[in-house]
Design goal:
Elements: H1 3-23, E1 33-47, E2 54-56, E3 63-66, E4 75-84, E5 89-96, E6 103-107, E7 111-113, E8 115-117, E9 121-124, E10 129-132, E11 161-162, H2 164-168, H3 176-187, H4 195-198, E12 205-215, E13 218-228, E14 237-242, H5 243-250, E15 260-261, E16 267-271, E17 285-286, E18 294-302, E19 308-313, E20 316-321, E21 325-329, E22 334-336, E23 339-342, H6 352-360, E24 370-375, E25 378-385, E26 388-396, E27 408-419, E28 424-437, H7 452-462
């Protein structure tokens, strides 16, 4: 047998024997000493395993209780002790239940700081888990993902340039009642919710305090919702949303059934200007760009100015400025105020090129010689002359080089034709700011519908 395999087998045997040893009774005639090695404020503990965990008497000669029979009983302790006999020693917590029906010594490695609340909810402060509808179990698959204090302590779903003062508004630990409301809401299957919330809710949900970095090495902890992606013992938790957004969802009538739903095969709905927010406030995040589509609108009137909508934005629960929600047919061009408008498509298995070619064949140039292709970032205007459509200019609201803070900068750029010998394409040139709006939630949609003459001024100034 391989030498390495022999050593590994021996180590596993010793470890298994040790665990059994701490769970086994001491000989009745053994000399036993109990000494306190640590004291602390009254702390609640829970079992961390589904296996038998015994509560012993002081001499480790009698099993008083098996905690497997009390999965939701909080055990309280103020000290950790070392129990020694002639043959071994171990570290134990002296614990008791609230009614003192359970009391005695439990091996330290079978407990975790935690509290069970009515309704089947669990809190694990050392893991930064505020509330979970699944109990922690040591040794499960991906058990490291349980720990929101370690490797998995940073939020990965909040993007953009982040602002400390704005984030701190949402850093407060929510009330226990609010936490329960959110987790109870997520228990029920609701197919109209964004897929990133709905797909895993039967397996488990929890609320964790996670680090959100606003600068290198500087962060604020924000309550986040995580969904158990896998079976109950997988431990594979996936972060999906801010707690505050899901809490807002629960306050809406009729279980937050959408007030508007859109079919991507017929209509493209996008946040024009590209702004999306993880919070009901535009100030924590700057330069947070979105694409689309918006599938559902759940409610309006959110945010300090009551001008944000809570939506399903491409499978995610997000806030967008209500007055910037653009709705255009993606099966035909739309004629408005003497200009044709074309929307991007979000249909499955339909390419951008195929969609564009199909729409262009439907444009009647006798009614207007201009069309604008609009997307979340802005639009590009085309002019029909000499039997062809020619790109004129591009107007954007989310160019990163021009949007550094809590504002919206509208930029203008000429479109020129470039070629490498094989391909030909349009490219913006001389991009510059032509207007600035005071906040990330500013209304910019009216600028999609400005007249040709309005933008001709900027076009002519560049020639």
């Amino acid at each position: 047998m391989n030498k390495h395999l022999i050593i590994t087998t021996l180590l596993l045997s010793v470890l298994t024997a040790s665990i059994f040893f701490f769970q086994s009774a001491a000989p009745t005639n053994a000399k036993v000493t109990v000494s306190t090695n640590k004291t602390f404020k009254k702390t609640s503990f829970l079992s961390n395993t589904n296996k038998p965990v015994y509560v012993w008497n002081a001499t480790l000669t009698k099993k008083r209780h098996n905690l497997k029979n009390y999965p939701r009983t909080n055990l309280y302790s103020t000290k950790r002790v070392t129990i020694k006999t002639n043959h071994y020693f171990g570290s134990y917590y002296y614990v008791h239940s609230a009614n003192n029906k359970i009391k005695g010594y439990v091996w330290h490695n079978h407990l975790i700081q935690g509290t069970c609340f009515k309704g089947g909810f669990y809190r694990y402060p050392t893991l930064n888990v505020l509330l979970s509808n699944r109990p922690y179990r040591k040794g499960t698959g991906n058990s490291g993902m349980w720990n929101a204090s370690g490797v998995y302590s940073s939020a990965t779903r909040i993007h953009g340039i982040l602002n400390k003062d704005g984030l701190q508004k949402f850093s407060k630990v929510p009330a226990l009642k609010q936490q329960k409301v959110v987790l109870n809401y997520l228990k029920k299957s609701r197919p109209y919710l964004p897929k990133m919330i709905e797909y895993g809710n039967h397996n488990g949900a929890r609320i964790t305090m996670k680090k959100v970095y606003y600068e290198p090495f500087k962060w604020v902890r924000i309550p986040m919702i995580e969904i158990l992606n896998g079976n109950a013992t997988s431990g594979n938790w996936e972060e999906i949303n801010t707690f505050s957004a899901v809490l807002d969802l629960t306050t809406l009538p009729n279980g937050a059934k959408p007030i508007a739903t859109y079919n991507v095969n017929k209509t493209s709905v996008i946040p024009f200007g590209g702004r999306q927010f993880d919070f009901a406030d535009p100030t924590p995040q700057f330069a947070t760009y979105a694409n689309g589509p918006i599938i559902h609108i759940y409610g309006n009137g959110f945010g300090p100015k009551h001008n944000l909508s809570l939506v399903d934005l491409n499978r995610w629960l997000r806030y967008v400025p209500t007055r910037n929600i653009l709705k255009l047919s993606n099966t035909r061009p739309t004629l408005k105020n003497g200009i044709w408008y074309v929307a991007p498509t979000y249909q499955d298995n339909v390419s951008y090129d195929a969609h564009s070619k199909k729409i262009l064949t439907q444009i009647d140039s006798s009614k207007s010689q201009y069309y604008r292709f609009a997307d979340a970032s802005g639009f590009t205007q085309y002019h029909y002359e000499n039997g062809k459509w020619h790109g004129q200019y591009q107007v954007k609201f989310n160019s990163p080089d021009f949007n550094k803070g809590n504002q919206v900068s509208m930029t203008f750029a000429n479109m020129i034709t470039k070629s490498d010998g094989n391909d030909t394409w349009l490219s913006p040139t001389n991009e510059h700011v032509i207007k600035t709006f005071p906040g990330n939630d500013s209304e910019v949609l009216p600028y999609l519908y400005k007249s040709v003459s309005y933008y001709d001024t900027f076009l002519n100034n560049q020639n």
